[in-house]
Amino acid sequence: MTNQTQTLIDHLRSTIWARTLTPAEMIRVEADCFEQFVPKGGFVCRKGEPLENWVGIIDGLVKINNFSPSGKNVTFAGVPTGGWFGEGSLLKDQIRKYDVMALRDTRVARMPRETFEWLLEVSLPFTRFLLMQLNERLGQFIGLVENDRMLDIDTRVARCLAAMFNSHLYPGLEKLVQISQEEIGYLSGASRQRANQALQLLEKEGLVRLDYGGVRVLDLEGLRHFQA
Predict the structure, then answer these.
(1) What is the pTM for the complete model shown?
(2) Per the database record, which ranges form the Cyclic nucleotide-binding domain (predicted)?
(3) Would you write out the chain's pLDDT as a tens digit for each of its 228 residues?
(4) CA atoms lying within 13 Å on the CB side of residue 9
(5) Beta-carbon count within 10 A of 104 CB
């Protein structure tokens, strides 16, 4: 089943965390969660908003970003189809400290705070899942800091693509990543033209193939360890 035809219920049942729930718990989750469509360039979440939902991506791609005092756009991470985010802020009960914007037309799943907190109370397996989620997220952001401070753009583009293949954070992502060169530039901190140069280099190295509509990963481990 493609993501374009996948219903909200199909998506919820396909998540890693759903496998940890009892049938009764899943019935409540399916009843409480709801779907939202966000067009390209629209806000999935806005900085300063109260946190009301845990958010998943049924189909699409979003970027988690912020703006510096000088107006510079800083992208922290991209979340592709299958990813869920915002659990850390919900656990801390804070207002949102970043914007989340759709890089293309995106279908979003939202789990209300009350349901999220209820699962934490009643489901130990769900709590274990969240511990793993937070641990993977921490590793992702440590890698992001390293990439930004230590690596050249070609290597950043390689690591950006590799980071999308995290089986816990983004399960089910196929080897053909439906992502544009402009989107890769946003996520790796490069212009579209510079991202294109980096992708051509990675293609020449045999790590990816530039296909119509996206980038096909040929050597994931090679991407993870690539150093220009």
Answers:
(1) 0.75
(2) 17-137
(3) 445 578 999 999 999 999 999 999 999 999 999 999 999 999 999 998 888 999 999 999 998 888 767 766 677 778 889 999 999 889 887 788 889 999 899 999 999 999 999 999 999 999 999 999 998 888 777 766 666 655 688 888 888 888 877 777 777 667 777 788 888 887 787 888 898 999 999 999 999 998 877 888 888 888 888 887
(4) 5
(5) 16
User: 């037309």: which residue's tokens?
Assistant: 105
